[in-house]
Fold this sequence. Notes:
Helices cover 17% and strands 43% of the residues. The protein is of the alpha+beta class. Strands 2-3-4-8-7-6-5 form a seven-stranded antiparallel sheet, sandwiched between helices. Strands 1-9 form a two-stranded antiparallel ribbon. Strand 2 (18-20) and strand 3 (28-31) form a beta hairpin.
Amino acid sequence: MPTTLPVPIAFTLPTGWRPVPAFPDVAYAAVHPQPDAGFAANITVDGGLPKEDVMPAELADASVERLREFADSVVVTHRQELGSADAPALAQRVTFSAVAGDDRRDFVQSQVYLFLPDGEDPRQRALVRLALTSTADQYESVLEDFQDFVRTVRPDDGAED
Length: 161
């Protein structure tokens, strides 16, 4: 069952990407219009309300461990802390190998962890995780779209643009 986000957000999908039904533990999903050998690069959005003292790096480490449950050769190739003390963020890139269809493939996943204030309890921070998953061969061609997508993500206060 798809999940819901702890805070409403708004964003703009990159041109050509199309929304698809979300899958378990995901609030939103979209796919690239040109699959690579049958695998469509995808953007997913999920989130939650982490414990008050949890740091972005801890959540990123936990995500890597979850990948290791079904993938091989999981390696964090880049990690950068972003944001501020009030609104911390973290970006990381992970490479891994997994079975897709009938073949083992090499993948790259870019993850961005954003902490946003909870509208109902400002002392509580809500986590929104954005992820791009693509084949290693397609990664460079879809990365800029993902970066553009990330730049559009913002809290949704219900006001029209």
